[in-house]
Structures are given as C-alpha cells and as structure tokens.
Amino acid sequence: MSTQRKKRFIAGATCPKCKEVDSLMLYKENDVEKIECVECHHKQSQVDEKVAKAAVSPTEVIGIFQP
Fold first, then answer.
1. Which pLDDT tens digit goes with each residue over 7-50?
2. How far apart are CA 11 and CA 9, in angstroms?
3. Is residue 2 helix, strand or coil?
4. How many CB atoms lie under 10 A from the CB of residue 8?
5. What is the reported pLDDT for 39?
6. Residue 36 and residue 26: Cα distance in Å, rounded?
7. Are 14 and 20 in contact (CB under 8 A)?
8. Going by fewer Cβ within 10 Å, which terminus of the chain is more open, N or C?
9. Alpha carbon 66 to chain centroid distance?
10. Burial class of residue 51 in the structure, from the number of CB atoms within 10 Å of its CB (0-12 exposed, 13-18 middle, 19+ buried)
11. DSSP 3-state assignment of 60?
12. What gap in Å lies between CA 29 and CA 6, rounded to an integer?
C-alpha cells in the first residue's frame, strides 16, 4: 500500500540547481519537509533546528532551505 504525499508548489521560488522559477513543490515525508524541482528533480530536505545543531559535521545535514 503506497502513501499519498500532499504536494504544494512554492510560488515564486527558484530551484537552486536549474534556476527554474515556480518549479519547486513542498511535501512531507516521515515528518520531514522536503522540496523537489519538477523540472530537474533536484531534492532538498529541511531539517529541524535541533537536528542541525546536533550534526557532528556539515556533511551530515542535507540542507536547510528558507522558502
């Protein structure tokens, strides 16, 4: 059984990879907010501040985005 994810587009947002405007969608997966570009399929996750502070090195954090 697959779980449906509610996806919303972020108006005016620009993809950090392909620079396409209005191509980012926001959704939650396992209580983690994620964005994905519908053009180039670039993905980022927004981590909780507590998780970001607890990370030992910057390579452990996927990324923090500010829509």
1. 899 899 999 999 999 999 999 888 788 999 999 999 998 766 65
2. 6
3. coil
4. 9
5. 96
6. 7
7. yes
8. N
9. 10
10. middle
11. helix
12. 10
Place of tokens 């950090």: 16
What band does 1 get if pLDDT is binned at 50, 70 and 90? Answer: very low
Here the tokens at position 55 are 């990370």
Query: Are 16 and 39 contacting, i.e. CB atoms less than 8 angstroms apart?
Result: no
Q: Percentage helix, strand, coil, to 5, in the chain?
A: 15, 30, 55
The domain over range 8-60 is classified in CATH as 2.20.25: yes
- Beta strands in 1-67, from DSSP E residues, in sequence order: 8-9, 24-29, 32-37, 43-46
Domain positions in the chain: 8-60
